[in-house]
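S2.1 Query sequence (Cytochrome c)
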Amino acid sequence: MLDQALSFIVARGRPISIAAWCLCALLAGCGQPNRANQPLPPLDVMAFQPLFQENCAGCHGTTGQMGPAPPLNDALFLRVVTDQELNEVIKNGRPGTLMPGFGFNPGLTLSAKQVDVLVKGIRAEWPSSPREFSGTLPPYATDAKGDATRGAQAFALACARCHGAKGEGTDTAGAINDGAFLKLVSDQFLRRIVITGRPDLGMPDYRQQITEPEARALTDQEITDIVALLASWRTSDSFAQEPAPGATKP
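Output structure tokens follow.
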């Protein structure tokens, strides 16, 4: 196109003015778009950070912490959860909760390869080595049945000093005996929070929740029983109607 413009100017027998040179320079920049600068189709994105920021950061935080959803940037969580469990929850979500499934649901489409990129990227981005863990860790998920009565006893030992005797909340931590909250989360969410705490918000994990009469970790059965207690509050009439003075919502 530049050659054609120059030929036209010369053929007219006129000197090439500054304006003509500017026109030629503009024409020289025309042509096909540079494919390297074009955005990739969504299903062709295979880099961890773009996938995470687009699909996960809104709930889990841009660095995997400090979002409304539990952190993924948590060493204990990454020690207890398996790659298969991560893969399945990304694909299928948590039915009945705010966690959507991204496995080709309408409007939320990630390919199997992209889900694998996220799982591997979470492991690589936030390795689980910074915190030391000893002994047998409780499983991330369990089929065991909990007992709400025993759960009340474990709750009194591990949770009541921050969340209140009946989960009504204190000036230290928010109410957990709250219908709106409990109906938005699954039993697996509750189990995960009891195990890992919320280190980004200062909530201790299962090893640090019992301090009296002597410090010890919650057992796997106690964790399961606490989840059973919290689940019973979801459908009972015992919801704390008014938070304690200074208490905040979870």
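The chain has a mean pLDDT of 82. The CA atoms of residues 48 and 121 lie 6 Å apart.
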